[in-house]
Amino acid sequence: MQGEQPATRVLLIEDSEDDAELVLLELGRAGLSVDARRVDREPDLRAALAERSWDVVISDFAMPSFDGLRAFQLVKALAADVPFIFVSGAIGEERAVEAMRAGARDYILKDNLKRLAAAVRRELEEAAVRRQRLSAEARALRDARRLAAAVEASGAGVYEYHIPATADSYYSERWAEILGFRLEELPPAQEVPTWFARRVHPEDRAEYALARSELLAGSQSRLVVEVRVARKDGSWIAVTLLGTVVERGPDGAASHVVGVMLDLTERRRLEDQLRQAQKMEAVGRLAGGVAHDFNNLLTVIYTFGGFVLGSLEPGSAIHADMQEVIKAAQRAASLTGQLLAFSRRQTIEPKIVNVDDSILEIEKLLRRVIGEDVGIVLQLQGQLGKVRIDPGAFEQVLLNLAINARDAMPSGGTLTVATSSRIVDAGHRTLSGEEIAPGTYVEVTVSDTGVGMTGEILEQVFEPFFTTKPPGKGTGLGLSTCHGIIRQARGYMTAESEPGRGTTVRVLLPRTAHDTEPAPLRSTPPTLQGTETILVVEDDDQVRKLSVRVLSRYGYRVLDAANGAEALALVEATAAAPIDLLVTDMVMPGVGGRRLATELRALRQGIRVLYVSGHAADSIEDGAFEDGTVEAEATWLQKPFTPEHLARSVRELLDRD
Questions:
Q1: pTM of this prediction?
Q2: Which of 132, 165, 438, 536 could connect to 560 by a Cys-Cys bridge, CB 3.0–4.6 Å?
Q3: Where are the domains of the chain?
Q4: How far is CA 462 from the centre of its chain?
Q5: For position 483, what pLDDT does the model report?
Q6: Edge-to-edge strand order for the sheet containing 533-537?
Q7: Burial category of 477 from C-beta neighbours within 10 Å (exposed 0-12, middle 13-18, buried 19 and up)
Q8: How much is the average pLDDT of 374-386?
Q9: From its phi and psi, is residue 261 left (phi > 0), alpha (psi between -120 and 50) or beta?
Q10: In degrees rounded to 5, what are phi and psi of residue 539?
Q11: For the domain 155-263, what is the CATH superfamily, name and number?
């Protein structure tokens, strides 16, 4: 029936069946529904306690085969929370007191059983209250543990203090740790608020004092303030202080405050890293865009300069002048190469490289560059394994690092180039805060004994256009270019330096499992001439016109279009005409080169593609070409190019099996 109370589970320890019946009869008379079991021996008692739980135990005191005190001890050991009531006719007052002191809830004489029902009800109610209290305490303990775990995970330091200050104020280990102290190193608890206020940065003390006074006076309900505080070692760190008042006096003034302190060091580091990444990305995009447009202009200068040079008499003054024009274009191309390198947009030809061998090959050049007053020491470990990087770019990195080291030693010194194998675990970072991917690396260190750098300068050494050299002595692109080359090879660069103690630059390149390069797939064609049909697609008018002119001179039939949409329309309009090769710029408005090639291949199966751009293959269209490589039936040509480079690339692609 709904609302019916469950039967009270009663365990009777009684050797007399008649006395047991009297007990149950009395409980039933008082309106208690009882589910009872009688035992009179220790094994039976143990079995009953093991089989189920009981609401109350009622036991005789004196039994021939079982002692009441022994039964009580056994119940307390196996079911400590179950109320235990003695019912006996010969317990005696002294023994009854002994039983109560041991933990029995009550004792009732058998000739006064009318007290029994009330005693059972009382014990059932008190047992329910105890269970609720224990449950609440368990919940509170779980909540406290969760809170402690959450506080620990947040990295917050907890504090609690009273006003006026008392010795029972509390400061957690983490609170002290943020300031660089052990808990036992803090001053007495009542002195900590004043001690902490003195550690706040002078420029932040007024703001901190105002925020705290407003909280204590009641004009603000919460404390939220960011300040700089001095650590034990004297360094300054930024922290956020959060607090709230839990007790106030009759006048409304705070008397009890709790809160947390958060170390902002990691957050500030991540914010700085994000700003640096955004700045480098913006400058990289700018540099890459400038280099792309400039490479188009250089292509025109190269090609038309070559046309003019070929029509001039060798040895004439104007022939020499035109050679200087082309040399200047070559130097300009080198500069755009540096821009592309630092922005990780230069064309690369990664190969399997033995780092030690590369250093030995460039050793003589390094000695000529750095001069006689700087000694070179090579510490090459050998048996390092191989890395995958563009060999020329790697030599450029070594050369730039050596020149920087030389400039840092105006009075001479020692340049040390060392190699080693290094396993990097998780948690290592570069100067900019970028995490280094765990793995096995070949490490190259370039160290000098020069003037060194301050920490402030060290943080900026890989930034583009940053230089400590006087005007006219440096572009500020050297180290940023090196950094771009190494990151393009999926490596990392970092540096260590102190004023007066020299500088060490570390280069980490991931070790490759390959030992050799695959055999080349093509050889130099015997002739650059051809009669095939080529479609040239280029949005720069000058570059498109000269490409058509060059290829026509080599005998090809050439069609041209100014963009991808125009090219697709041209192909559809000339469905019967064969097209053997597409020469397309990669970056064009609307339909880009990669998409054009895909759509064109759907119309003309088997067509081959020569991609051309002032950018690099691995930086275009969201990394469409990993490691500077392209898909089958295609190849890549970097601007600026000469007429011969264009013709050679076309012929090699058409002759590919």
A1: 0.44
A2: 536
A3: 8-131, 155-263, 285-342, 351-512, 533-655
A4: 21
A5: 82
A6: 557-561, 533-537, 581-585, 608-613, 634-638
A7: buried
A8: 88
A9: beta
A10: -80, -15
A11: PAS domain (3.30.450.20)
